[in-house]
């Protein structure tokens, strides 16, 4: 035991004493979530908590908000003690969310999914993440984001492309047509590692198929033995050399967005949030979107979840709050505050833009999802995944070496 | 008896004067330094209640299994070597120039020194924008000179990204060396310079045989400070490239931070810190012994 | 021979009429100065342009229609009101407090004979050489152990710890150079060390203290790495953290990004321009002569 841990234990003991003195007889519910960058989100959260208190006399809801990094760190710190929240926010996926599940911090919620019939309420794709963990269903959706290819209609027309590609090969053929017309097919910002990563994620899905892709991301199969891994890196290399607006390694995602709206590239691989961003600067009629054609019938996306902590003294109340939070009425009243679409499928939308309508249809169609690599991998593997992708994208590593580097790193972990 | 009372009174006074600084320094500077060494022998992710003792395996992992460590090590060495040579050389040149009776020297000195007082993270933000391959300053200047083909992905091309980042560092740090040299030049004996000039010595000879020897002490200080500051290179690289592309501009200090505070592998991050600490000590201890000797001889 | 004659003539004339080497030197210094100042001009110009103008006009074209609104928007979006106040509070507490305790310690080490005085001095001076960047993680766990993450004391205490070595180093050298007679006179009059320190040493060391004050102001105002680790709540962020986050979030608004840079850099620049002379004397008083 280090001096630090002695000191921290003493500090925590002090903190507990303080906490003990202000414990009231009423039921307390503590929620740790993000300090959202949009004030509308923060206000909506506070309002829901207040309404829940009003509907349940004697219940006191504490909402503690923090910045992203602080939030992650705070949960880590709390995990080693008896303190901590009843409900905590975290991304879904074996990487970020899974680490806390593995550490025994998340309570399986199968009982509550059955009791409250949440599956009848939730958008299937959003709820699908609760099933990816071992030992039961964990967490309930807070928001869900899908990602697809947005394209500039005029540029597609100029390159003589009619209709959207039905499979990966057709997409590459379209990219080739764009190239022939002197138009860079797609734009990415390389300094934020997760942007180019999206291209690698969708190529892996297209080349490996759903099962192998999942097995690769779960590190259950050998990256060097599955030929599709190296093939996918080879495809990434091809895109980087021929189709991505260059240079891209020295700019970030926001700059690539500027280049996209300036008509410097034909496509962008982005989430449903882009509709709003585009609407602020361009005429949406010039743009449309289609899912990256992978042929696996799965949607590319990720989710943010609320998890119930195993340390919670009152998990029933926590579940009740989450049920209230995701109920149709509440979700209808705060529509648009957290995300453009709700995770509740009964919520009604009006005045939707065509692209938003399209997203809604997509969300209601797909019940299977493959997620972003940085949500799927543990943090250290994510860092290596970023590095390998960037090495390939900057032409510095052969596809075969890239697959080998991934496997070496994964192998060294155990 | 009175003498004894004075003695103990004196000790209390000394303790009261020295105490606050010493306590804060020991708790918040010395202790973390020892703790980083201690932590480097443990496996800890910040989540588990117990830290597991793993012997030297963090070091073994860092040296043999970490694909980035040696890149970071090499970059730190390159960066240090460059910062020992380039900013001090430019700084010396500017100082020699400003030491002449020329028009506007105070203004010029103020301009050269200005970047030193700007936050390194702001320097990084400025330069990142200037390096923008589409709308940045360098791209535009080269394009207007008809040198489009010279426009590069300054921060995205792994072959030049480190040197692009170093460019920003030079801009920021030259003024610092310059001021130290200017101060050192005040110590050059003017009558000696005059005498040499009357004896027919040229500018170069005067510099070589009069000025330079007088600057020996300053030179050593500038170089040691350059080494120490460059080993700390963190803010500028963090802000400009974040270690990218593909970790090709990673540095030891930043990589230790990434391992500990972003990947939450405290053991491995600490092991990297200890390596950096070792490198620093290898430079610093000879210097401290040298200054001590010098002090003893002058006393 | 001729050059010697020429030199002699020049020496007689006092000042040479036209020294081509000096003129060449002066010109090259001007060129370097132009290069040195160009980034500032570029940043200020860009900060006054709209995104459209940035994309279409040349880098050194002055903004035709200055967008002062960039500053207002960047101020609001970058939460400059919060970060500015945090920076001011932290700097205003840390700098005077740090100087105070460093001066006290330096006095004790320089003027009071102690058994482990020399060892203590070496231990403290050792700190000037150690990059605190290697200890970010243990500093974090330590401060977290005290429950001080996201608090002013949580960042001020480590700042103090890493400011002490350099300040003690410089002040110790300065105090030791003060003649014994000065302090002994006061001591014989029966003054305690506290009184001697306050009445005799503080007044004579005011110029050095002023220089250290300004140097430390800039260092504290600009500090990034430690703040990044210790201040995670954005309500507690300082200006450098705010700028870094602004770049991450709003980098596509070029004008506003550059306005944010200008606003972050301006306070330190003003302080520098006002107290210029102290910067130079402060750097040189300790590092070169000590």
From TrEMBL, chain A:
GO molecular function annotation = maltose binding
Q: Which Gene Ontology terms describe the biological processes this protein takes part in?
A: maltodextrin transmembrane transport; maltose transport; transmembrane transport
Q: Which Gene Ontology cellular component terms are annotated?
A: ATP-binding cassette (ABC) transporter complex, substrate-binding subunit-containing
Gene3D superfamilies in the cross-refs: Periplasmic binding protein-like II (3.40.190.10)
Annotated InterPro entries: SBP, SBP_1_CS
Signal peptide stretch? 1-25
Keywords on record: Periplasm, Signal, Transport
* PANTHER family, per database record: MALTOSE-BINDING PERIPLASMIC PROTEIN, MALTOSE_MALTODEXTRIN-BINDING PERIPLASMIC PROTEIN
Q: Which family does it belong to?
A: Belongs to the bacterial solute-binding protein 1 family.
Provide the protein name. Answer: ABC transporter substrate-binding protein
Query: Origin organism of this chain?
Result: Pleomorphomonas carboxyditropha
Automatic annotation (TrEMBL), chain B:
* A Pfam family that the UniProt record links to this protein: BPD_transp_1
Q: State which residue ranges cross the membrane.
A: 12-34, 77-98, 110-130, 160-185, 206-228, 270-288
> InterPro entries, alphabetically?
ABC_transporter_permease, MetI-like, MetI-like_sf
Q: Which UniProt keywords apply?
A: Cell membrane, Membrane, Transmembrane, Transmembrane helix, Transport
Q: Which GO terms describe its cellular component?
A: plasma membrane
Q: Which residues form the ABC transmembrane type-1 domain?
A: 73-287
Q: Which GO terms describe its biological process?
A: transmembrane transport
Key word Flavoprotein present: no
Indicate how the chain sits in the lipid bilayer: Multi-pass membrane protein
Out of the domains of life, which is the source?
Bacteria
Q: Where in the cell is it found?
A: Cell membrane
Chief localisation class? membrane
Cite the CDD domains for this sequence: TM_PBP2
Keyword Transmembrane helix assigned to the entry: answer is yes
- Membership in a protein family: Belongs to the binding-protein-dependent transport system permease family.
Q: Which PANTHER family does the annotation name?
A: ABC TRANSPORTER PERMEASE PROTEIN, INNER MEMBRANE ABC TRANSPORTER PERMEASE PROTEIN YCJO
State the protein's name: ABC transporter permease
Lineage, top ranks: Bacteria, Pseudomonadati, Pseudomonadota, Alphaproteobacteria, Hyphomicrobiales
From TrEMBL, chain C:
Protein name, please? ABC transporter permease
> Per its UniProt record, what InterPro entries does this chain match?
MetI-like (IPR000515), MetI-like_sf (IPR035906)
- Which regions span the lipid bilayer? 20-45, 84-109, 121-143, 155-179, 200-221, 257-275
User: What is the scientific name of the source organism?
Assistant: Pleomorphomonas carboxyditropha
What PANTHER family does this protein map onto? ABC TRANSPORTER PERMEASE PROTEIN MG189-RELATED, ABC TRANSPORTER PERMEASE PROTEIN MG189-RELATED-RELATED
Q: List, for all copies, the residue spans of the domain called ABC transmembrane type-1.
A: 84-275
* Keyword Transport attributed: yes
Q: Where in the cell is it found?
A: Cell membrane
| Keyword Mitochondrion carried by entry | no
Q: What is its main location?
A: membrane
Name the membrane topology term.
Multi-pass membrane protein
Any one of the GO BP annotations: transmembrane transport
């Amino acid at each position: 035991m280090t001096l630090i841990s002695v000191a921290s234990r003493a500090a925590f003991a002090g903190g507990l004493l303080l906490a003990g003195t202000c414990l009231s007889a009423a039921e307390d519910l503590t929620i740790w979530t993000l300090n959202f960058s949009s004030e509308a989100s923060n206000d909506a959260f506070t309002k829901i908590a207040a309404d829940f208190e009003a509907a349940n006399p004697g219940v006191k809801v504490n909402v503690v908000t923090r910045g992203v990094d602080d939030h992650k760190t705070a949960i880590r710190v709390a995990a080693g003690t008896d303190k901590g929240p009843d409900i905590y926010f975290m991304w879904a996926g074996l990487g970020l969310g899974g680490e806390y599940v593995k550490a025994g911090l998340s309570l399986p919620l199968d009982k509550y999914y059955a009791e409250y019939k949440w599956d009848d309420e939730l958008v299937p794709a959003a709820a699908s993440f609760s099933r990816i963990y071992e030992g039961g269903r964990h967490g309930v959706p807070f928001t869900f984001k899908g990602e697809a290819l947005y394209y500039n209609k005029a540029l597609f027309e100029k390159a003589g492309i009619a209709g959207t590609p039905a499979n990966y090969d057709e997409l590459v053929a379209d990219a080739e047509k764009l190239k022939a017309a002197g138009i860079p097919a797609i734009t990415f910002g390389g300094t934020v590692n997760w942007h180019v990563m999206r291209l690698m994620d969708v190529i892996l899905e297209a080349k490996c198929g759903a099962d192998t892709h999942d097995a690769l991301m779960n590190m259950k199969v050998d990256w060097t033995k599955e030929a599709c891994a190296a093939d996918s890196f080879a495809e990434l290399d091809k895109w980087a050399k021929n189709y991505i607006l260059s240079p891209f390694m020295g700019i970030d995602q926001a700059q690539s967005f500027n280049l996209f709206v300036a008509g410097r590239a034909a496509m962008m691989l982005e989430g449903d949030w882009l509709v709003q961003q585009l609407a602020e600067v361009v005429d949406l009629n010039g743009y449309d979107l289609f899912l990256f054609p992978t042929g696996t019938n799965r949607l590319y996306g990720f989710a943010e979840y609320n998890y119930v902590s195993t340390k919670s003294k009152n998990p029933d109340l926590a579940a009740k709050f989450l049920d209230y939070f995701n109920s149709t009425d509440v979700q209808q009243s705060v529509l648009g505050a957290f995300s453009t679409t709700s995770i509740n499928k009964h919520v009604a939308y009006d005045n939707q833009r065509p692209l938003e309508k399209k997203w809604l249809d997509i969300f209601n169609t797909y019940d299977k999802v493959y997620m972003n690599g940085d949500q799927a991998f543990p943090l250290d593997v994510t860092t290596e995944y970023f590095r390998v992708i960037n090495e390939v994208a900057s032409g510095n590593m052969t596809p075969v070496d890239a697959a080998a580097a991934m496997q070496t790193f994964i192998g060294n972990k155990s | 008896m009175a003498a004894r009372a004075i003695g103990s009174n004196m000790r209390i006074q000394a303790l009261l004067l020295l105490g606050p600084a010493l306590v804060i320094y020991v708790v918040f500077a010395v202790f973390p330094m020892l703790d980083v060494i201690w932590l480097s022998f443990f496996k800890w992710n910040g989540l588990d209640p117990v830290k597991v003792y793993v012997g030297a395996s963090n070091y073994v992992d860092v040296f043999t299994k970490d694909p980035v460590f040696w890149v970071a090590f090499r970059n730190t060495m390159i960066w240090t070597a460059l910062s020992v040579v380039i900013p001090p050389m430019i700084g010396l040149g500017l100082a020699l120039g400003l030491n002449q009776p020329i028009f506007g020297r105070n203004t010029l000195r103020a301009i050269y020194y200005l970047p030193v007082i700007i936050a390194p993270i702001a320097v990084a933000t400025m330069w990142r924008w200037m390096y923008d391959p589409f709308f940045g300053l360098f791209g535009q200047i080269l394009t207007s000179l008809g040198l489009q083909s010279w426009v590069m992905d300054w921060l995205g091309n792994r072959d030049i990204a480190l040197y692009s980042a170093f460019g920003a560092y030079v801009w920021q740090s030259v003024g610092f060396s310059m001021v130290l040299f200017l101060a050192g030049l005040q110590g050059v004996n003017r009558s000696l310079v005059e005498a040499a000039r009357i004896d027919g010595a040229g500018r170069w000879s005067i510099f070589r045989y009069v000025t330079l020897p007088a600057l020996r002490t300053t030179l050593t200080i500038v170089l040691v400070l350059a080494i120490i500051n460059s080993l700390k290179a963190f803010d500028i690289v963090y802000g400009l490239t974040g270690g990218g592309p593909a970790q090709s501009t990673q540095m030891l200090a930043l990589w230790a931070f990434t391992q500990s505070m972003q990947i939450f592998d405290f053991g491995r991050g600490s092991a990297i810190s200890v390596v950096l600490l070792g490198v620093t000590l290898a430079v610093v201890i000879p210097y401290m012994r040298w200054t001590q000797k010098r002090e003893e001889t002058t006393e | 021979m001729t050059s010697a004659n020429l030199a002699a003539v020049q020496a007689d004339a006092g000042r040479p009429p036209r020294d081509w080497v000096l003129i060449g030197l002066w010109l090259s210094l001007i060129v370097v100065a132009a290069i040195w100042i160009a980034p500032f001009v570029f940043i200020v110009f860009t900060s006054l342009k709209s995104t459209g103008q940035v994309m279409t006009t040349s880098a050194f074209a002055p903004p035709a229609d200055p967008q002062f609104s960039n500053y207002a928007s960047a101020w609001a979006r970058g939460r400059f009101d919060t970060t500015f106040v945090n920076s001011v509070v932290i700097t205003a507490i840390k700098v005077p407090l740090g100087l105070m305790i460093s001066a006290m310690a330096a006095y004790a080490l320089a003027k009071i004979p102690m058994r482990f005085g020399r060892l203590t001095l070496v231990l403290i001076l050792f700190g000037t050489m150690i990059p605190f960047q290697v200890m970010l993680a243990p500093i974090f766990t330590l401060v977290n152990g005290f429950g001080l993450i996201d608090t002013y004391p949580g960042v001020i205490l480590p700042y103090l710890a890493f400011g002490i070595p350099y300040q003690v180093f410089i002040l110790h050298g300065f105090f030791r150079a003060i003649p014994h007679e000065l302090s002994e006179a006061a001591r014989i009059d029966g003054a305690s060390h506290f009184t001697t320190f306050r009445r005799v040493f503080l007044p004579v060391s005011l110029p050095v203290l002023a220089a250290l004050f300004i140097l430390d102001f800039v260092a504290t105002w600009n500090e990034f790495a430690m703040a990044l680790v210790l201040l995670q709540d954005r309500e507690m962020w300082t200006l450098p953290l705010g700028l870094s986050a602004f770049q991450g979030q709003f980098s596509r608004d070029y004008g506003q990004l550059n306005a944010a840079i200008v606003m972050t850099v301006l306070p330190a620049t003003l302080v520098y321009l006002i107290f210029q002379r102290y910067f130079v004397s402060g750097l040189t008083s300790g590092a070169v002569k000590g």
